[in-house]
Amino acid sequence: VQLVESGGGLVQLGGSLRVSCAASGFTFNRYWMIWVRQAPGKRLEWVSSIGSSGTSRYYANSVKGRFTISRDNANNTLFLQMNSLKPEDTAVYFCARGIGSRSWDQRGPGTQVTVSS
Predict the structure, then answer these.
(1) What is the pLDDT of residue 84?
(2) CB-based burial of residue 12 (10 Å sphere; 0-12 exposed, 13-18 middle, 19+ buried)?
(3) Which of helix, strand or coil describes residue 113?
(4) 6: closest CA among 16, 19, 25?
């Protein structure tokens, strides 16, 4: 299993960013996929989940209405579109292979997202 995130960076308050996750080594379209994040000095936080077909999507209250999770099963890629970014969204964002909608067994090395005020 390999998960590699990309697309992180520095963005201003209110800006947008899209992070991606390239998956390989497993049958991508059979798994839930999850985004989690970890802010400096804080625990890992679940952000969003998407079902294998892309129909089912769930979001943490802190990002609902601002973030959109999606997937491209043809290209084994997971996305997280982040809009109206806030400083509290600053974190390392990880994609993870889901075991159900809220648990995971593998995750990538992460990509840093920094929102400046």
Answers:
(1) 98
(2) exposed
(3) strand
(4) 19
Structure tokens at 61: 């209250």
Residue 89 gets the label, from left (phi > 0), alpha (psi -120 to 50) or beta, of alpha
Task: Report the DSSP beta bridge partners of residue 78.
Answer: 21, 71
Contact 113, 90 (CB under 8 A): yes
Q: What angle do CA 73, 80, 7 make, to 5 degrees?
A: 100
3, with CB counted inside 10 A (0-12, 13-18, 19+), is: buried
Sign of CA dihedral 67, 43, 90, 111: negative
Which burial class, exposed, middle or buried, applies to 14 when counting CB atoms under 10 A from its CB (0-12, 13-18, 19+)?
exposed
Question: DSSP E strands: which ranges in the chain?
Answer: 2-6, 9-12, 17-24, 33-38, 44-50, 57-59, 67-72, 77-82, 91-98, 104-107, 111-116
Per residue in 35-85, pLDDT (tens digit) is: 999 999 999 999 999 999 999 999 999 999 999 999 999 999 999 999 999
